[in-house]
Amino acid sequence: MQLDKMRQREQRTGWILVAPALIILLLVFAYPILRAFWLSLFAQNLGTELKLVFSGFTNYGRMLNDGRFWQTLWNTTVFTAASVLLELILGMAIALVLNQSFKGRGIVRTISLLPWALPTALMGVAWAWIFNDQYGVINDILMRLGLIKTSISWLGDPTLAMIAVIAADVWKTTPFIALLLLAGLQSIPSDLYEAHAIDGASSWQSFRQVTVPLLMPQITIALLFRFAQAFGILT
Question: 84, 150, 151, 226 — which has fewest CB within 10 A?
Answer without folding.
Answer: 150
